[in-house]
Design brief:
By secondary structure, the chain is α+β, with helices and mostly antiparallel strands. The chain contains four helices and three strands. Strands 1-2-3 form a three-stranded antiparallel beta sheet. Strand 1 (40-56) and strand 2 (63-78) form a beta hairpin. Helix 2 packs antiparallel against helix 4. 19% of the residues are buried.
Amino acid sequence: MANQAEIGIKARKDWMGLLARAPDVALMTLWDGIQDCPSFEWLRRPEVGGVMVRGRIGGTGALFNLGEMTVTRCSVVLQDGTVGHGYVQGRSKSKAEAAALIDAMMQTAAADDLQTRLLDPLRLQMQSIKTARAAKAAATKVEFFTLVRGKTDA
């Protein structure tokens, strides 16, 4: 059975991953609807950089460098001392700031409200995009059949 700290780490990993992958427009639209954003100070202002993306053939092979990806990161501290970090794909400094603030707020009493008003709708939007993309890909699927003619000696 997982202890409370492990559950908290997994939950934080889930919401930070969701924020990192979310389309800019979807996240920022939902974030604009949040009225009670707390005041904060910068620990690290938003900055753009690159990371090396590594992969494995078939998910089990040896690691190889796939290429570089642009990311933006920042860190904030709320007035109560709660620290939030934002790492997002691309060059959107405003998205990184929003992700850091959401991360910090999810560690406070505002977590349940933020989960309901922002993270759950964002998760649903992203799932519907994923489902639509999968349906579009499935529509182009081609099945190949092999017919054996004549007598074969095996």
